[in-house]
Amino acid sequence: MNKEGKAAPGKTPQSKIPFRRVVKTGFDINRRAIPVLFVVIQIVSVAHALTYGFSVLLTQRFYDSVAGAIASGGDIRAALIPLALLCVLLLGRELLNGLHNFMHSVVFSKGGIEASRTAHAKMGRLDPVVLENTDFHDMFNKMQEGQSNILFLVDIGITIFTFYLPYVLFMAWYLHRVNPIFILAILFVFVPTLFGQLLKTGVVVKFEDKAAPVRRQSALFDSLITSREFFKETRLLGAYTDFIKRFLETCRELSKAEWSASRKKNLIELSMALFTVLGWGGILFLLVRALLRGEISAGAFAAVLGSLRLLFGIMQEAFGHVGSVAENYGKGQNFVRFLDLPERGGTASATDAARGIVLENVSFTYPGAEKPSVDGVSLTIKSGETIAVVGENGAGKSTLVRLLTGLYRPTSGRVTVRGADTREANSESLFAGVSGVFQKFRKYQMTLRENVNISEMPDSTGKALHMTGRALNTAGEAASDGPETYALASVGVDGGDAASFPQGLGTMLSREFDGVDLSGGQWQRVAIARGLYRGHELVVLDEPTAAIDPIEESRIYKTFVDISRGKTAIIVTHRLGSAKIADRVAVMSGGKIIAVGAHAELLQTCDFYAEMYRSQSEWYEQEEDT
Amino acid sequence: MKDILKKPKYGAADLITLLWKASPLYAAIANIYPLLAALLPTVSLLATAAFIDAALAVVAGTRPPVAVAAPVAVLLAVTLHDYALRILLNLVSTKRAIFLHRTLRPALLKRVAELDYSHIEDQDTADLLSRVVPAFDTRVVECNQSVMSLASSAVSAAGIIVTITLSVWWAGLIIVAAAVPLMFIAKKAGENSYAARRETSKITRRAAYLSQVITDREAVEERTVFGYADALNERYYERSHAARKIQQRVTFMNFIKQKAGGVFGSVIAVGVMGSMLPPALDGSLDYGMFIALSGGILTLISQLSWGINSQVEEIAKQKEYLNDLTKFVGLSVSEDATALPKRGTELDKIDFEKIEFDNVSFSYPGTEKLVLDGASFTIERGRHYAFVGVNGAGKTTVTKLLTGLYTNYTGEIRVDGRELRDFSQSELKGLSACVFQDFARIGFSLYDNIAVGAYDADEAAVLAAAETAGLGETIAKLPGGIHTKLLKIYEGGADLSGGEWQRVAIARSLVNPAPLRILDEPTAALDPLSESRVYERFEEISKGRTTLFISHRLGSTKLADTIFVLSDGKITEQGGHAELMRQNGLYAEMFSSQAEWYTESQIL
Question: What is the ipTM of this complex?
Answer without folding.
Answer: 0.86
